[in-house]
Design goal:
Number of strands of chain B: 12
Largest sheet of chain A: 5 strands, mixed
Structural class of chain B: alpha/beta
Strand content of chain B: 15-25%
Radius of gyration of chain A: 32 Å
Distance between the termini of chain B: 36 Å
Shape of chain A: elongated
Helix content of chain B: 40-55%
Number of helices of chain A: 9
Shape of chain B: globular
Structural class of chain A: alpha+beta
Strand content of chain A: 5-15%
Distance between the termini of chain A: 54 Å
Order of helices and strands of chain B: EHEHEHEHEHEEEEHEHHEEH
Largest sheet of chain B: 5 strands, parallel
Largest interface: A-B, 26 and 25 residues
Oligomer: heterodimer
Chain lengths: ~350, ~240
C-alpha cells in the first residue's frame, strides 16, 4: 500500500524537477524524466506501483507540460503521440524491471535456502559425529567391563567406569547445546524479560560450570550497587555458561578466569576473561559462526560442538544486548564483552517493597 | 536384601532407571521398593511405609504430580522428584505441591545420594526443631527474634525477619517465589517476583559478607530461594 504512495511521491518529485527545469532550459521530451520515476518504481516496488506511476505521469505531464498548461487536455497531436509512446514504453520497462526484481529475489531466496541446506548438513554431520564418538566409547567400555567379569583388575575396572561416566557427560552436554540451537532455529526465542539480579545469573552459570572451571582460579567482581537488569534469566544463564565453558576449555589448568561487571552509563558491561592462547586477529570475526572451533591451549583442535558462541550471541541479542570477542593476540587470552542495557525504570520499584 | 537402612520407594516406569537406582541405593545400605506406575506407587506408599520417595514425573497411567498431590494429603514423607525436563515451571509446580527436592535427568548417583541424605536429615530436624538456627557465621534465635552475623547483632525490618524465619523453617529446601510472596505480602502479591528480588537484595546486604556472592541465602534461578544448612555449607569448598 505504502509502495503506491512512494510511487506517487517519485512522480511528484519528477514533476517538480521538470517544472523547475523547463523554466531554465527547454525540455522537448519531458516524458523521459517521468520514465525515470516509472523505472524506479518498478525496480524498487514492483509492477503495480510502476503502472500506477505511469498513470500519474500521464496525468501530471498533460497537466503541467503539454499545452494548454494547467489542463488535462492535450492539444497538439505530436504531444499526444508522445504520451502514447510514453505509456507503451513505461508499461514495457515497468514489466521488465519488475521481472528483474522478482528474479533477484528468487535468486536471493535460493541462495538462502542453499545456505540453510549447508548449515543443516553441517549440523547433521557434526551431530552424528559428536554422538557416535562418545557412544562408541561407552558401549566399548561397558562391554569390556562385562568381559572382565569377577576377576578384573580393580584399576582396569576403575578406568573403564570413568570412561563410561566421562563420555556420558560429554554426550549430555552436547545434547544440551543441540537443544539450545534447535530452540533458536525453531524461532522459540521469545525472551521472557523481567527485572533480575545479574549476580544471580552469574552465580548460577558458575555453579553449572563448576566442574569445567575446577583448577582455574576465579576472579569475580560484581559490585553490589549494580542496577537490576531486564533479562531472560535462562537465556542469559545459558549464554554465560557457554562463555565460561570456552574460557575453561581454551586456557591451561591453573590459568585465571575472571568475571567482572561494571556500569558504563546506560549499560552494564560484563567481561569474561581467560589467560589462554587467545585468538589470531584473522579468526576473530569467525568465532560466532556455528561450528567454528578454535584450537585448545595445547594446540590440538578443541573438543566441543562449535556452537557455544553462536548460541551465546543469539541469546544475548535476544536480551537486547551485544557481545564482542576481543583478543590482544596469541597467548594474550580472550575477553568476551557482553553489553546489557540498563532499564530506565529499574530504580522505580527499588524502594517499593520494604514498607 | 538387608532391611538395615531406611526404606526408599523408587517410582519410575523405565526398568533401566529403576535397575541402576536399585543397585546404587542398595549398595549404600538402603532398602528399595519399586513401583512402575502411579497406582502401584500410591499402594506401595501405604503398605510399605517408605521413609523417602524418589518420584519420576513421567508415568504411564497418571502424572507424577498427581502422585505427589495424593501423597501429600496424608503423608509428610520426603519426596525427591526426578524429571528429564529441566523446565523451571515444573520445578516450581513440584515444590509447591510439596516436593522436597528436584533432580534433573541425567544425573549422577553421587548427587542423588547426597540429596537423599540431606532430605532424610531434614526430616529428623523437622521433628525436633532447634530454637536457634546456625549456619556458618549466621545465627537466628527464633525464640528471642535476634539475628547475629559473626556474633554481631543485625537489625532487620519486621518483613525481613519474617522472610528469614520462613527460610529457616524450610532450611536446606527451596522455597518458591510464590510461597514467599503470599506468606509475606498476601496471596494478591503472588506474582510480584520483582518485589521479592529487591527485598532479598536488602536482606543479603545485612547478612552476607559479599551480597553478590552469597554464602547462606542462595538463589534457585527462576524457582525461589534456599537457606543453606550447615552440611550444605560444608559440602561446598
Amino acid at each position: 500500500m505504502s509502495n503506491y504512495l512512494k510511487s506517487a511521491l517519485a512522480v511528484a518529485v519528477v514533476a517538480l524537477v521538470g517544472h523547475v527545469l523547463t523554466r531554465v532550459v527547454p525540455l522537448p521530451h519531458v516524458s523521459v524524466l517521468f520514465l525515470a520515476a516509472v523505472v524506479t518504481s518498478a525496480t524498487l516496488w514492483g509492477l503495480g506501483p510502476s503502472l500506477f506511476a505511469a498513470i500519474l505521469s500521464v496525468a501530471a505531464g498533460s497537466f503541467l507540460f503539454y499545452r494548454p498548461i494547467y489542463s488535462f487536455h492535450v492539444a497538439s497531436p505530436q504531444d499526444f503521440a508522445d504520451l502514447i509512446v510514453f505509456v507503451v514504453v513505461a508499461v514495457l520497462t515497468g514489466r521488465l524491471a519488475a521481472r528483474m526484481r522478482s528474479q533477484a529475489r528468487e535468486i536471493a531466496e535460493a541462495r538462502l535456502k542453499v545456505q540453510g541446506e549447508a548449515l543443516r548438513e553441517a549440523l547433521l554431520n557434526s551431530v552424528s559425529h559428536d554422538l557416535q564418538t562418545p557412544l562408541a566409547s561407552i558401549l566399548g567400555s561397558a562391554t569390556a567391563l562385562e568381559t572382565l567379569g569377577e576377576h578384573g583388575e580393580p584399576r582396569a575396572r576403575r578406568e573403564l567406569v570413568a570412561t563410561v561416566r566421562e563420555e556420558a557427560e560429554r554426550l549430555a552436554s552436547y545434547i544440551d547445546s543441540v537443544l539450545d540451537l534447535s530452540r533458536i532455529r525453531a524461532g522459540q526465542l521469545a525472551p521472557r524479560l523481567e527485572l533480575v539480579e545479574l549476580a544471580d545469573i552469574v552465580n548460577a552459570a558458575l555453579r553449572r560450570k563448576e566442574k569445567a572451571l575446577a583448577g582455574h582460579p576465579l576472579r569475580i567482581e560484581l559490585p553490589p550497587e549494580l542496577p537490576m537488569l531486564r533479562l531472560d534469566l535462562f537465556l542469559m544463564e545459558h549464554a554465560l555458561a557457554n562463555v565460561l565453558d570456552n574460557a575453561a576449555k581454551y586456557s591451561p589448568a591453573g590459568a585465571e578466569v575472571s568475571v567482572v561487571a561494571r556500569r558504563e552509563g546506560s549499560e552494564v558491561v560484563l567481561e569474561i576473561g581467560d589467560r589462554g592462547r587467545g585468538i589470531p586477529a584473522e579468526e576473530l570475526d569467525r568465532v560466532f559462526d556455528a561450528f567454528y572451533r578454535g584450537s585448545a591451549h595445547d594446540g590440538r583442535p578443541a573438543a566441543g560442538s562449535g556452537l557455544g558462541l553462536a548460541i551465546c550471541r543469539a541469546f544475548v541479542e535476544g536480551n537486547g544486548g551485544a557481545v564482542a570477542v576481543l583478543s590482544a593476540g596469541p597467548a594474550q587470552g580472550v575477553r568476551v564483552k557482553i553489553r546489557l542495557p540498563v532499564p530506565t525504570a529499574a530504580a522505580a520499584s527499588e524502594e517499593a517493597a520494604d514498607e | 536384601m538387608s532391611d538395615a537402612g531406611p526404606r526408599i520407594l523408587v517410582v519410575d516406569d523405565e526398568p533401566q532407571i529403576r535397575r541402576f537406582l536399585r543397585v546404587g541405593l542398595q549398595s549404600h545400605a538402603y532398602a528399595v521398593v519399586e513401583a512402575a506406575t502411579a497406582a502401584a506407587a500410591l499402594r506401595a506408599a501405604v503398605t510399605e511405609r517408605p521413609e523417602l520417595v524418589v518420584l519420576d514425573l513421567g508415568l504411564p497411567d497418571r502424572e507424577g504430580f498427581d502422585v505427589l498431590r495424593a501423597l501429600r494429603e496424608w503423608s509428610r514423607v520426603p519426596v525427591i522428584v526426578l524429571s528429564v525436563r529441566s523446565r523451571e515451571d515444573e520445578k516450581v509446580r513440584a515444590f509447591e505441591l510439596g516436593a522436597d527436592d528436584y533432580v534433573v535427568k541425567p544425573f549422577g548417583m553421587a548427587e542423588l545420594l547426597a540429596r537423599i541424605r540431606a532430605a532424610l536429615r531434614r526430616q529428623v530436624e523437622r521433628e525436633a526443631p532447634e530454637p536457634v538456627f546456625r549456619v556458618g557465621g549466621l545465627e537466628v534465635d527464633l525464640v528471642h527474634r535476634i539475628v547475629r552475623v559473626d556474633s554481631a547483632e543485625v537489625r532487620l525490618s519486621p518483613k525481613q525477619y519474617r522472610l528469614l524465619q520462613i527460610l529457616v523453617a524450610h532450611a536446606g529446601k527451596v522455597v518458591t517465589h510464590g510461597q514467599l510472596l503470599s506468606e509475606i505480602w498476601g496471596a494478591a502479591h503472588r506474582d510480584d517476583v520483582q518485589y521479592l528480588r529487591v527485598f532479598i537484595r536488602k536482606l543479603r546486604s545485612r547478612i552476607e559478607a559479599d551480597p553478590a556472592r552469597p554464602n547462606y541465602l542462595l538463589t534457585e534461578l527462576g524457582v525461589g530461594y534456599r537457606l543453606r544448612t550447615p552440611d550444605q555449607l560444608a559440602g561446598t569448598s
